[in-house]
Design a protein that fits this description.
Number of strands of chain A: 6
Strand content of chain A: 25-35%
Number of helices of chain B: 8
Strand content of chain B: 15-25%
Number of domains of chain B: 1
Number of helices of chain A: 2
Number of strands of chain B: 8
Oligomer: heterodimer
Largest interface: A-B, 34 and 28 residues
CATH architecture of the domain at 3-69 and 102-112 in chain A: 2-Layer Sandwich
CATH topology of the domain at 3-69 and 102-112 in chain A: hypothetical protein PF0899 fold
Radius of gyration of chain A: 17 Å
CATH architecture of chain B: 3-Layer(aba) Sandwich
Helix content of chain B: 25-40%
Order of helices and strands of chain B: EHEHEHEHEEHHEHEH
Structural class of chain A: alpha+beta
Structural class of chain B: alpha/beta
Largest sheet of chain B: 7 strands, parallel
Strand order of the largest sheet of chain B: 4-3-5-2-6-7-8
Largest sheet of chain A: 3 strands, mixed
């Protein structure tokens, strides 16, 4: 939902990382995105195409890895991956769950020259 | 060549929300993030809750709106410290705004700080503002499909308040649909049906909040 601000942040993080490693061109930016972080990769790409003009990231591709929603059951202790529309432990059906992941939005790595 | 970065993108907000949380913990203030659509009855509910809770807790309110002072004036009329936070177009409040506005309150003499977020069922849920917990309000006229359509707002909340229940006879609204959908996305969250106009159900909600605030402040 807030991809303009998010993309600005992604661009800054990427340019800084590239500069620190002496890279001159960013080909791809790899993101990992949780189902609850509210970021749509296609929107990030659209904003990046505009924001990155004239920088080493111009023309860079956004490659997003979508992360699962991981939970730990407070009753049977099992960790599992579930859908965000049906929140229950797949092993025992308990509703007492602790969320382990879901809100991530991370720049994982860059493909650079 | 691939280089590893591993940098969290929303860090700017997460860092500040952690600072807000630390400041408020030190001052023993419980921050409650109140969210819901425009017109769902957030300000009216706050006025009712203030009446119920002010005997036990010293209360302040941050009123978030895109523009204008209307809500802060309503709360200030109750002799409660209220500060209007205008986002100038932004659809949600971020932790930075809360951090900037905290010095306007006498935190040493405050127990509870309500934040009335911008009227919106999408964006506010995505931003941690340093709150202890969240309240989501849904009103009967908005329709019984909203939990399905805006799941995050109902997943990441301490309790759901179903307001304007005095309107149930006039709308094709299924309480059962809301209960089932809410249970699906937030199995342990309680649901409080209320009517702010008649006062029906507000006492039960206030009792729940009283217990919750006490445990946050202990």
């Amino acid at each position: 939902m807030h991809e303009l601000a998010v993309t600005q942040s992604i661009l800054e993080i990427s340019l800084r990382a590239a500069r620190e490693r002496g890279a001159t061109k960013i080909r791809a930016i790899r993101l990992s995105i949780g189902p609850f972080c509210g970021v749509i990769p296609e929107c990030v790409q659209t904003y990046l195409d505009v924001l990155a003009k004239g920088t080493p990231a111009e023309g860079a591709r956004i490659e997003a890895k979508l992360l699962p929603l991981r939970v730990r059951c407070r009753d049977c202790g099992k960790e599992s991956e579930i859908s965000r529309t049906h929140i229950a432990c797949p092993a025992c059906g308990s509703l007492r769950l602790e969320r382990l992941s879901g809100r991530e939005c991370t720049v994982e790595s860059l493909e650079v020259d | 060549m691939e280089i590893t970065v591993l940098h969290q993108v929303m860090e700017w907000n997460e860092d500040v929300s952690a600072e807000v949380r630390a400041t408020l913990r030190e001052k023993r203030v419980c921050l409650i993030n109140v969210m819901g659509s425009p017109g769902t009855g957030k300000t009216s509910l706050l006025a009712s809750l203030i009446a119920q809770l002010r005997g036990e807790f010293s209360i302040g309110v941050i009123e978030g709106d895109i523009t204008g002072q209307i809500d802060a004036e309503k709360i200030a009329a109750l002799q409660i410290p209220a500060v209007q936070l205008n986002t100038d177009g932004a659809c949600h409040i971020e932790a930075m705004s809360i951090q900037n506005i905290l010095p306007q309150f006498d935190l040493g003499n405050l127990d509870v700080l309500f934040v009335e977020n911008i009227g919106n069922l999408v964006c506010p849920a995505e931003f941690d503002i340093g709150e202890n917990f969240r309240i989501t309000i849904l009103s009967v006229p908005e329709g019984d499909d909203k939990v399905k359509k805006y799941p995050l707002m109902f997943t990441d909340t301490d309790c759901l308040v179903l307001s304007k229940c005095d309107m149930l006879p006039y709308f094709d609204f299924s309480m059962k649909t809301v209960q089932e959908d809410y249970r699906g996305v937030n199995p342990e969250g309680p649901l409080f049906p209320i009517s702010n106009r008649t006062g029906w159900g507000v006492g039960e909600l206030a009792d729940h909040l009283r217990r919750r605030i006490r445990s946050e402040l202990s």
